[in-house]
């Protein structure tokens, strides 16, 4: 339809302006269409982002949630005196001489009795075949118990031991009978036994706190591995980052923003701070290796060094956000303070800094969250590997003894051969995400509750 | 700013390290990612059975481990380097220059290198070293002249192999596995196929001919993997023609995804490797700084525990994981007990 036909035959054909206000002319329609298209692009962009996020979250949850449960087997073990304490005098030093290898026989016979009590016929000739159902951590678990309870030697104690990673994978649907065809670690017959044990109530799958609180384990027993120790490593690193980068960052930005003269030197500093914020984190790792470990000779793999490296990485972020929030405090506040006779320093510390605090804290928390998720610099200072195996003995040991960090632990798990570790890597990602989300939520709450706008 | 930052951190450091300057009580190990699984199994059992803390084991490759090992003597250097190849003279010299003179070499057993492809992929089931040489060599001698490798499919190399595009994922040069691969597969294949003779006839001397045998094509048919076997596995997973080089233990943990090929007609297993029938195997080592024994608590106990029959013997947890135990383990045990250094037995 054309404008002419709408405005009626009486009107002189004039350019677009003649029509009713209710009718849109060509140009307006075109502009409106362009706007609609632009909105559609925007919505598509947001939609694509959302789809990616959903797919990512879905994959993480689907792959990671199984890591939080674990299959256990209830095993009444007779702690035979003949094997554990030959002399019978309950001397701890002598009991210690029986290594975990000496406990293998006890576990095998315990498994046999458990099976026969439950009325399950073992398809194997050798009793040791059955022990493939059980994690090799069982021996250490029983030995630890015997060392702390030497008086129980001779009695029968029921332990809840971990099932081996493949039995656990079968319970979680990860391992199938077909997949075991060429596998020398477990046979399909083992799974038949496991099925019967489950029916008899000996084998159970339940929530596994040790995954969240435990230490890392070696390659041969993924079922025992936990992220707890590396979580402590991350905690100690974050303490170092907080204690160093907050005061240094705030002092630097207050000076630069409030006191420093404006000249070419401060300009250079400013440009360099922005540059530092964009430097890839691996560069800080190389710097940390060269300066902190090789020059200052701090211990390798220590959370202290990790924290120092991450401090270097976090400082620019904190300085930039602190300066932004200092800038946001209106000059009238400073003028008023100076006007009633406050010194420059009083005006900053009594008025400007408290008003800028929410912004500073938000920036700090976001900087910490970024540092918490960082792996690359830790690769170079020796925090990736089979490291998070001992709980720190105390505060000093927490800073100085070798430890890993959560993202480094996840990376390490993803590298290991046993597919069960892959599942744990996803589980670790869930825990790390929960931490990051908590920190971001705290930052948002701080901003919402305390931020003042002028 | 960065100067201010550094001085400030250095001050903070001095304060912390002054209070915390105490002896390290944990053994620190780094090196080969092939040895890492075994070392971590031993470290874990060591922590469980002794009153010493569990040693820490880092990976990164044999070469980078030995490089760190040779940085010097002292508490902030590593005590043990794991290696999937023997230490080189060049490295011994670098060590000596940095003051690391007494090194104890411990052979822990043997490990096989296997060639595997997707479980349901093409029928890659039997190889000869010469197949791999002809498929991967950068240049092949044709009529007395060296020309760029013309082979595009495995069938070009050997008509018995499937007509699939050549796509090999081999360990990168920082891995000890690469050296074994070059020596036992590429150079062996070079000799078997007669290419070595032709190269020498074409005027190359022995060293140059060997280098030419080892040179791998760079046209994208062969990909160096610098990461771990998990990376190779991921590449194979997404590439049906792909063939990868793995350690035997890694393959045995992933039999549901990988299909292994025979080499010279022998299937890889701990038995065929122990008997020496399977051609591509190599010894695994770790190296101890003798100067650290007695300084770092538990270092000697760890080494003795590692090579004890309970651990490294034929029925121990290491051989369960895939290590081929060393028939001369008893000699190694007495060597560790006597702290015999490398110079002493040469």
TrEMBL record, chain A:
<keyword id="KW-1003">Cell membrane</keyword>
<keyword id="KW-0472">Membrane</keyword>
<dbReference type="InterPro" id="IPR000515">
    <property type="entry name" value="MetI-like"/>
</dbReference>
<dbReference type="Pfam" id="PF00528">
    <property type="entry name" value="BPD_transp_1"/>
</dbReference>
<feature type="region of interest" description="Disordered">
    <location>
        <begin position="1"/>
        <end position="26"/>
    </location>
</feature>
<dbReference type="Pfam" id="PF11812">
    <property type="entry name" value="DUF3333"/>
</dbReference>
<dbReference type="GO" id="GO:0005886">
    <property type="term" value="C:plasma membrane"/>
</dbReference>
<dbReference type="InterPro" id="IPR024573">
    <property type="entry name" value="DUF3333"/>
</dbReference>
<dbReference type="InterPro" id="IPR005672">
    <property type="entry name" value="Phosphate_PstA"/>
</dbReference>
<feature type="transmembrane region" description="Helical">
    <location>
        <begin position="352"/>
        <end position="373"/>
    </location>
</feature>
<feature type="transmembrane region" description="Helical">
    <location>
        <begin position="302"/>
        <end position="320"/>
    </location>
</feature>
<feature type="transmembrane region" description="Helical">
    <location>
        <begin position="38"/>
        <end position="61"/>
    </location>
</feature>
<feature type="transmembrane region" description="Helical">
    <location>
        <begin position="231"/>
        <end position="256"/>
    </location>
</feature>
<dbReference type="GO" id="GO:0035435">
    <property type="term" value="P:phosphate ion transmembrane transport"/>
</dbReference>
<feature type="transmembrane region" description="Helical">
    <location>
        <begin position="425"/>
        <end position="446"/>
    </location>
</feature>
<dbReference type="InterPro" id="IPR035906">
    <property type="entry name" value="MetI-like_sf"/>
</dbReference>
<protein>
    <recommendedName>
        <fullName>Phosphate transport system permease protein PstA</fullName>
    </recommendedName>
</protein>
<keyword id="KW-0813">Transport</keyword>
<comment type="similarity">
    <text>Belongs to the binding-protein-dependent transport system permease family. CysTW subfamily.</text>
</comment>
<feature type="domain" description="ABC transmembrane type-1">
    <location>
        <begin position="231"/>
        <end position="443"/>
    </location>
</feature>
<feature type="transmembrane region" description="Helical">
    <location>
        <begin position="276"/>
        <end position="296"/>
    </location>
</feature>
<keyword id="KW-1133">Transmembrane helix</keyword>
UniProtKB/TrEMBL annotation, chain B:
<feature type="signal peptide">
    <location>
        <begin position="1"/>
        <end position="23"/>
    </location>
</feature>
<dbReference type="InterPro" id="IPR050811">
    <property type="entry name" value="Phosphate_ABC_transporter"/>
</dbReference>
<feature type="domain" description="PBP">
    <location>
        <begin position="17"/>
        <end position="310"/>
    </location>
</feature>
<keyword id="KW-0732">Signal</keyword>
<dbReference type="Pfam" id="PF12849">
    <property type="entry name" value="PBP_like_2"/>
</dbReference>
<protein>
    <submittedName>
        <fullName>Phosphonate ABC transporter substrate-binding protein</fullName>
    </submittedName>
</protein>
<dbReference type="InterPro" id="IPR024370">
    <property type="entry name" value="PBP_domain"/>
</dbReference>
């Amino acid at each position: 339809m054309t404008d002419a036909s709408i405005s009626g035959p009486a009107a002189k054909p004039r350019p677009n302006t003649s029509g009713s206000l209710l009718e849109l002319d060509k140009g307006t329609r075109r502009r409106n269409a362009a706007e609609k298209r632009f909105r559609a692009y925007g919505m598509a962009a947001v939609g694509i982002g959302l789809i990616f996020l959903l797919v990512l979250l879905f994959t993480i949850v689907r792959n990671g949630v199984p890591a939080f449960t674990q299959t256990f087997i209830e095993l009444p073990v007779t702690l035979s005196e003949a094997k554990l304490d030959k002399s019978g005098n309950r001397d701890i030093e002598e009991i210690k001489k029986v290594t975990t290898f000496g406990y293998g026989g006890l576990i095998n016979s315990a498994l046999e009795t458990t099976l026969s009590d439950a009325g399950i016929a073992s398809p194997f000739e050798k009793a040791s075949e059955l022990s493939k159902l059980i994690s090799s951590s069982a021996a250490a678990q029983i030995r630890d118990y015997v060392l702390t309870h030497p008086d129980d030697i001779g009695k029968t104690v029921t332990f809840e031991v971990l099932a081996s990673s493949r039995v656990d994978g079968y319970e979680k649907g990860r391992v199938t009978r077909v997949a075991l065809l060429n596998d020398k670690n477990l046979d399909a017959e083992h799974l038949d036994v496991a099925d019967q044990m489950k029916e008899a109530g000996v084998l159970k799958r339940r929530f596994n706190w040790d995954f969240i609180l435990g230490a890392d384990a070696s390659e041969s027993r993924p079922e025992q591995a936990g992220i707890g120790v590396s979580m402590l490593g991350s905690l100690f690193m974050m303490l170092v980052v907080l204690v160093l980068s907050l005061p240094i960052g705030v002092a630097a930005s207050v000076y630069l923003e409030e006191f420093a003269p404006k000249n070419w030197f401060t300009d250079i500093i400013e440009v360099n701070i922005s540059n530092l914020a964009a430097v890839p984190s691996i560069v800080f790792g190389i710097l940390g290796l060269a300066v902190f470990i090789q020059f200052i000779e701090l211990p390798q793999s220590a959370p202290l060094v990790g924290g120092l490296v991450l401090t270097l990485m976090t400082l620019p972020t904190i300085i930039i956000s602190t300066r932004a929030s200092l800038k946001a405090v209106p000059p009238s506040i400073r003028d008023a303070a100076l006007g009633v006779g406050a010194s420059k320093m009083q005006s900053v510390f009594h008025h400007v800094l408290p008003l800028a605090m929410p912004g500073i804290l938000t920036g700090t928390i976001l900087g910490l969250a970024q540092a918490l998720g960082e792996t690359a610099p830790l690769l170079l200072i020796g925090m990736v590997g089979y490291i998070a195996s001992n709980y720190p003995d105390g505060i000093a040991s927490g800073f100085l003894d070798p430890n890993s960090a959560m993202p480094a632990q996840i990376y390490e798990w993803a590298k290991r051969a046993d597919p069960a570790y892959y599942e744990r890597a996803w589980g670790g990602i869930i825990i790390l995400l929960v931490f990051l989300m908590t920190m971001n939520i705290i930052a948002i709450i701080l901003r919402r509750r305390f931020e003042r706008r002028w | 700013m960065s100067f201010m930052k550094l001085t400030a951190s250095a001050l903070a450091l001095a304060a912390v390290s002054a209070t915390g300057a105490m002896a390290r009580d944990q053994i620190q190990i780094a090196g080969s990612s092939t040895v890492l699984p075994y070392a971590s199994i031993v470290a874990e059992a060591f922590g469980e059975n002794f009153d010493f803390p569990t040693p820490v084991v880092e990976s990164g490759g044999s070469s980078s481990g030995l490089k760190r090992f040779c940085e010097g003597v002292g508490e902030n250097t590593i005590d043990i380097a794991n290696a999937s190849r023997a230490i080189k003279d060049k490295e011994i010299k670098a060590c000596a220059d940095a003051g690391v003179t007494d090194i104890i070499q411990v052979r822990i057993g043997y490990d096989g290198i296997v060639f595997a492809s997707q479980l349901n992929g093409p029928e890659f089931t039997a190889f000869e070293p010469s197949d791999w040489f002809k498929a991967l060599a950068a240049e092949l001698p044709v009529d007395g002249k060296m020309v760029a490798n013309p082979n595009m499919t495995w069938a070009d190399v050997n008509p018995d192999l499937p007509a699939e595009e050549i796509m090999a994922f081999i360990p990168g040069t920082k891995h000890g596995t690469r050296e074994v691969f070059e020596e036992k597969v590429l150079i062996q294949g070079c000799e078997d196929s007669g290419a070595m003779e032709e190269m020498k006839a074409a005027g190359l001397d022995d060293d140059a001919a060997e280098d030419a045998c080892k040179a791998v094509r760079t046209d994208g048919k062969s990909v160096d993997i610098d990461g771990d076997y998990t990376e190779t596995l991921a590449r194979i997973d997404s590439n049906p023609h792909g063939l990868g080089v793995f350690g035997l233990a890694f393959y045995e943990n992933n039999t549901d995804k990988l299909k292994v090929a025979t080499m010279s007609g022998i299937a890889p297993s701990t038995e065929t490797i122990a008997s020496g029938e399977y051609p591509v195997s190599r010894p695994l080592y770790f190296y101890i700084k003798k100067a650290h024994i007695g300084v770092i608590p538990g270092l000697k106990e760890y080494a003795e525990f590692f090579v004890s029959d309970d651990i490294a013997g034929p029925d121990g947890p290491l051989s369960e994981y895939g290590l081929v135990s060393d028939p001369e383990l008893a000699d190694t045990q007495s060597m560790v007990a006597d702290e015999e250094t490398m110079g002493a037995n040469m």
